[in-house]
Amino acid sequence: IFIIEGLATIAYAILAKCFIVDWPETAAFLTAEEKLLLSRRLDEDRGNEFARMDRLDKHSFNRIMKDWKIWAGVKYLATFFVATGTYITQPLVIVWLSNNLGAHYKRAFGTAMQIGFGDISGIIGSFIFIQNEGPGFKTGYGSALGMVLVCGVACTVFHFGVRWENGKRERGERNDRLRLSEAEVQNLGDDHPGFRFSG
């Protein structure tokens, strides 16, 4: 599917070349007066009449590649690593809970609650990234970092909690549940003493 989407993008790019307007200096359909006006507007937009680079040749390419500002801007790459971390851990946490909910109904309800509460973050996120705090966004990033910490603590508690519960079951401390009626024992789900959690 990625090949199909990629080919569609390439096809649109080739077609778009026919419709993209040329630079004012080289646009054949503009009069000399219109070219001058548009060139002035572009200069004003740049903010400096001296900041021109209308030709891409070997020397200008070398200047571009040696500009430290561009390489400092590559820090944007780090945001992709952050997103990668998010998209790797999110399904793992969902599956981890799902594997530890032993019965069908409990698994469906628990997973729905987990994802539902997680999706509230999209609503909260639109309020904690306050425009006048930019570009640092202390409230937004601070809250996000706090939630990462909460997630780390919750995962640690969950890990040691299920190990503790498995230990109790290994020692037979949950076997009193087997004295319930047969119908109740068969409906215990992950509360059954024979069920083991994955930590």
TrEMBL record:
InterPro entries, sorted: MFS_trans_sf (IPR036259)
Keywords: Membrane, Transmembrane, Transmembrane helix, Transport
Record's subcellular location: Membrane
Membrane topology field: Multi-pass membrane protein
Organism superkingdom: Eukaryota
Transmembrane segments: 76-97, 109-130, 142-162
Record PANTHER family: PERMEASE-RELATED, TRANSPORTER, PUTATIVE (AFU_ORTHOLOGUE AFUA_1G11820)-RELATED
Full protein name: MFS general substrate transporter
Source organism (scientific name): Hymenoscyphus albidus
